[in-house]
């Protein structure tokens, strides 16, 4: 009996450990470092999360229902709330179309702000969650805001323990650091009310492909092998099955590449990733990047992906593949397909 129990316990431990790809404690330190030590630098490097938050707001504006209670899961500093509260300016030199699109976006922000009566923010880092807690733009949001420091993998907090409590769950660029993503999505589905909305984004598999390939080629040249320098990411084709497995219905999934250009070298790109807290945290990651490998990667990056600016200088672009996903918790009130054979139009007549 003791041997059988020991074997069963070992099997359970293996099952629990099979999802452990990322070092969550290291990721917490990485994400907290810049907001705590240099808040102004942290604010300058929020451009990706702000851009994705705006695109989330644009998509949310097409949904006409009210969202009384909303969960911002993995909220970071609250980029979703910040961009709801701050009007977007017209781009410099913008034409009439830019003016109208900006006006529509700002109107959408006002409509969504009025829909949300309570926004519950959840993040594992206290430093980043509370960084902008005293900013003046928060006064533009009339609803109630609560901030909770919670490990996004455990759901061990009163705001996440009760089922069927949120009208919508928003999650922007945080799910890609969770080890057991299927369980996290299932828990998100659980806390939603029936027919509740989940709208999430995460970095997809083609993110930073320029950096990934340059580092791989450099290490092959210098060391004769490769180390996991860039974290593994979910691919677009896998997202639908993950959402279905978690219990979501009526899925909408698409992807968009956001290309950030103008980096003078690989080191500058890595500094931005570090300030964002998006550097590598794979458990099997190498301890450091040798200088000769970095120099080789920089030259390979320039030769394969470099772009010339107006002064003729070669700069480096970085591609961030963002996956947008929408799913609804199943409900008896949702529209259902008609039974087979009940159609009133013959397909032959249409074709």
Walk me through this protein's architecture.
This is S-adenosyl-L-methionine-dependent methyltransferase. The chain has 351 residues and is of the alpha/beta class. The protein has a domain at 23-204 and 235-257 and 321-339: 3-Layer(aba) Sandwich (Rossmann fold), CATH 3.40.50.150. The protein has 14 helices and eight strands. The chain has helices at residues 2-17, 24-37, 39-44, 47-60, 79-85, 96-115, 126-129, 158-161, 181-191, 209-223, 236-245, 266-276, 291-305, 347-350; strands at residues 69-73, 118-123, 144-149, 166-172, 192-203, 248-263, 307-308, 314-329. α4 (47-60) packs across α5 (79-85) and α10 packs across α13. Residues 1-17 have low confidence and may be disordered.
Could you provide a short overview of the structure?
The protein has 351 residues and is α/β, with parallel strands linked by helices.
| Number of contiguous helices | 14
Strand residues, percent: 15-25%
**What's the β-strand tally?**
8
Cα separation of the termini:
68 Å
Order of helical and strand elements? HHHHEHHEHEHEHEHHEHHEEH
Shape: globular
CATH superfamily of the domain at 23-204 and 235-257 and 321-339: Vaccinia Virus protein VP39
